[in-house]
Records
---
Amino acid sequence: MGTKERKQREFAERERQFLDAAYELVSANGLLNLQVSKVAEKCEYAVGTLYQHFASKEDLLLALTTLQSQAHTEMFRRVAQWEARPRERMFAIAVADMIFVRNYPEHFRIAQYALCEVVWRAASAERRQDFLEAGRPIGEIVIGIVRDAVAAGDLALGGMSPEEVCTGLWALCNGIHNLVHAEGVLEDFAVGDSYLLMCRHVQAMLNGLGWQPLADPEDVRATDRLIQRITNEVFHDLCPAQ
Amino acid sequence: MGTKERKQREFAERERQFLDAAYELVSANGLLNLQVSKVAEKCEYAVGTLYQHFASKEDLLLALTTLQSQAHTEMFRRVAQWEARPRERMFAIAVADMIFVRNYPEHFRIAQYALCEVVWRAASAERRQDFLEAGRPIGEIVIGIVRDAVAAGDLALGGMSPEEVCTGLWALCNGIHNLVHAEGVLEDFAVGDSYLLMCRHVQAMLNGLGWQPLADPEDVRATDRLIQRITNEVFHDLCPAQ
DNA sequence: CTCCGATAATGAACCGGATTCAAAATTCGC
DNA sequence: GCGAATTTTGAATCCGGTTCATTATCGGAG
C-alpha cells in the first residue's frame, strides 16, 4: 500500500511547482507585483490549494528562499569534497557564489526581503527553522576550510576565531550582493563587475590574515584560468555551455 | 508677510512629527505591526493629513530611512573635519557607525526593508532621490580619507581605486549590520560584540591593503582608549553620559 | 468685526489582494 | 458501486492602505 507515499510525493512535487511558479513570476514582473492568486493560477490550482502548503504569502517567499539556499549549500558541499589546497578551496567558494548568483539572479533580492522582520515574522516557525538549517552547513564548510588553512600554517587569525573570520567573509560577500541587488543604490553597477570586486576584497581580507594570493593579483588572466579550472572540475553541470 | 514661511515651517515640522511617531511605533511594536492610521493617531491627526505628506506607507518608511541617514552623514562630516591622521580618521568612521547604531537601534532593520525592491519601488521618485542624495556624502568622505592615506603613503590599493576600496568597506560594514539585525539569523549574537567584530574585520581588510594598525590588535585596552578619545573629541554631544 | 474664497483637515467609504471556509469533488478501501 | 475521508474549490470575508467629498480653518478685504 504505497498510496500514502505517493500522496506525500505528489504533495511535495506540488509545493515545488508553486515555488517554481512564484520564482518565475518574480523574475517576470518583480517581487512588488507578485500575487498569491497568480501563483496558484499559473499552476492551475485554486488559491485554497496553495494555502494548504503555505501559511501565508510570506511563508511562500521564505520557503522559496530556503529552496534556493539549499542549492547554494549543495554547491558548497562539492567544494568541501574537492581535493585541493585550502586556499584553492576558499577561492572555489567564491566561484560557487558567482555561479550560484548567475543561476538564480533574483535570489538575493528575494532573500533580502524574506529576511526582513516584516516577512520573517509573518512566515511560519517551521519555515524559519528550515531556513536556518539550510544555511548552517554553509558556515560549517567555510569554517572547515579556514581551520584547514590554519592547520597547514598558511593563515594567521590574529586573535580571531575561525567562526569570526567566516562571519566577516560572509558579511563582506553578502554586503556586496546586497549592494549590487539593492534598488537604486548602485543602479549603474554591472553585476558581472561586482564579482571581480568581491573576489578582490576577499583577497584583500585574506591577505590581511596572512594568506598569500594564489596568483599575482595584477594578472587577470591567471585569475580567469583559475576560475575556469574550478568551473570545469567542480561545477561543470551547473554552467550553461558558453 | 511671513505667513507662507511659517506654513512651510509648520508643514516640515509636522512631517518630522509623523516620522518620529513612526519610529517610536516601530521601536515599540515592530515594523510588522506598523499601521499608517496609528501613526496619524499618535500625532493626533487624521490619516488624510498624513497622506498630504507621504504618497504611501512605503514613502513614509523611505523618508524615515533618509532622515536617519542624514544624521549618519552628519556624523561622518564631523570626522572629515576632525584634525587627525588618515588612519585615525578612518577609525573614527567606525566609531561614528557604532554610536549611530546605538542611537538609532532600529535604523538598519527599517533601512534593510525600505531598500528592498518592494518598498523602494512603492515610494515616490522624489523620496528615492532624497535618499540617494543623503547617502552620497558618506561615500565621498570615506573616499577622501582613503585618498589622503594613499597620498600620505601609508596605503597601497594594489590595483583598486579608492572608490572600490570604499565599496568593500561599506559592504563589509553593512553586511555585518544586516547580519546582526536580520531576524533569526544570528539570534544569540549581542549587538555590542558585533562592533568589536566589525572593527577587527575592517582592520584586517585595511591591513591587507598595507595599512598599519593604530595599536597592537591584541591590546583591547588600547582600542578602548582610542574609541574613548574619539568619542570625546568628536561625538561628545551624541553620547548619553554613562 | 464680518464675510468670503482659498487652503487644509477630516474620517467614512472605497478598494485590492490576502486569507478563510462551507460546499463540491475526488479518492480510497471495502 | 458505495460511503466515509480527504482534497479542492472559489466566492465571501477581512483588513488595512488609500481616496475624496465634506467640513473646518485661515488670512486678507471691506
---
Amino acid sequence: MRGSARPAQLLKQGCPGLDAVSPDAYKSGSDFNRLNLASMHDLRSIRDNPAAFDAGLARRGLSAQSGDILALDQRRRALQTEFQELQARRNEASKLIGAYKKEGKDAQPLLDEVAALKEKMPALEQQEKELGVELDGILASLPNLPADDVPEGKDEHDNVEIRRVGTPVEIAGAKQHFELGEALGLMSFDAAAKLSGARFTVLRGKLARLERALGDFMLDIQTNEFGFEEVSPPLLVKDDAAFGTAQLPKFTEDLFQTTNGFWLIPTAEVPLTNLVNDAILDSDELPLRFTARTPCFRSEAGSAGRDTRGMIRQHQFYKVEMVSITRPDQSQAEHERMTDAAETVLKRLGLPFRTVKLCTGDMGFSAQKTYDIEVWLPGQGMYREISSCSNCGDFQARRMKARFRAKGEKNTQFLHTLNGSGLAVGRCLIAVLENYQQPDGSILVPEALRPYMGGLERITA
RNA sequence: GGAGAGGUGGCGGAGUGGUCGAACGCGUCGGUCUCGAAAACCGAAGUACCCGCAAGGGUACCGUGGGUUCGAAUCCCACCCUCUCCGCCA
C-alpha cells in the first residue's frame, strides 16, 4: 500500500551538504513543519544588497554568508521554475485527457507524455525541497542584524551608558539579599534545594507577599498607565511558538522541555509575541500592547558557576513582560516608550538604576537594538540587569508570519515586534531588599508598594 | 481515558474524481442613485512563491504529512486539532 517504486527513486538523488540544520533537528514531539521559504531574513533584500547583509553579520562577529545563501537561492529557484513548468504541462495535459476521454478521442499520446514528465518530477521536487531546507537552515540560524545606531563592541564592557537615574546610597556594611532574607527567616535556599536542587528559592511570609506585591504593582503600572493589555498565557508552548521568537532552532539547551515535547517558556515574550503569529492585522489596530506576569524557566546550562549564591540566577522566576506589536514606522518610538515603562517601575520604587544601550556583541539573537536597565545593588556594590528591552524589527514577525495591511493597500507587510521586561520580579525583590535594608536587618517597604502590602511599612523577622 | 462528530476563503456554508481558488449568503471595499444616508443595483476582493523591464503568465495552498490517479477539496493511510456525551479531576 505504501509507495512502491517512488522511495528508491528519491534515494538515488542524494543531496550533498544536507547535514545543516534540518527542521527535525530540534527534537521530536510536535509537528514542526512550518518552515517557509524566504522567511527569517528577507531573501530579496539579500539579493538586492548582499554587501549590506554581510556587513551586518560582520558587526555581529560573523562571517559573510550572502555568497552561500545566494548560490543556494539561485539553484533553488532554477529548480523551482523548472519543476513548475513541468507541473504546468502536466496540468494542461491532464485537462486535455479528460476532454479527450469525454469526446472519445485517443488520449494515449497524452498519457505517455505525462508519464514521461512524471519520470523527472519527483527528483526535481526532492532536490528543490532539500535546497530549501538547507537554505532555511542557514537563514534560521543567523541572528538579526543590528540597527545602525547600535555601538560596535565585543561584550558587555562595550555597552554605552545612556542615562543614570537616582544616586546609589552608601550603606555601611551593606548586606546581600540572601544574607538579609535568610536572617529574616523568610528566604531559604536549603529548603528549595531539598525540593528541587540548586538555583531555586523558597520565599515565605512577607517576602512571598513582597514578590506578589511587586508583580501586581508592575502590572498595574503597565496596564493603567502604559496601555498594555494584561494576558494570562500558557506556560508550555509548541515548537512553532519557540521558533517564532527564535528560541529555536539554536537555543534548545537553554530551555526545559517536557517529555511530550512542550517547551517551558523562558519568558512570556514567547506566548505574547506569538499571539499574532500567522495573522494579518489591520494597520489601524496597531500598536498592540500585551503584558503578563508569568514564571520563566531557564536551564542556565551555560552559566555553571555564575551567580550561584542567592536568587540572582534561578531556574524559575517571575517576570512581568511587555510585548508590543507595531508597524515598522512605529517601532523606534515604541522602543523608547517601552523602556520608559520599565524605568517607571524603578523610579516609583526609588531604586537607582542606569540604562545602557547594548553593543553589537552583547545583543540577543532576535534583537535589532536593545536597552538594558541595570538596578543598583548595594550589597553587591554594582549595577545588575533587571530589564532588557528590545526592538526585534521584523525578524520575529517573518519567522511567525505576522503581517499587517495598511489601509487601502493591497500588499501585506511584516510587523515589528518588541519585548521588554517590566520588570524581572525576582531581581526587583533583591533590589528592594538591598536598597531598603536597615541596620537592624529589617527591610523598609518602599512607599509606593505599601498599598500592595496591606499597608505594611517594614518587614521584620 | 471511553464513544461519537467535524476541520473549506473575514464569517456562515455548499461542494464526494476533471473547466473548483472553490457555488451561495453575510460582512468588507469601489461605484450608481440621493441634499445626505438607508435600501436597491453594478462591480471589486484570499495568501505565498516563481518567470517577466512591463503587460502578463505560471505554481502551490480546502487542518498537517504521505499515498492512489493522466487528474484530488473530493478516494486511501497516518498524525494534529476542535466540538459533543460519559468517566475522572484542579
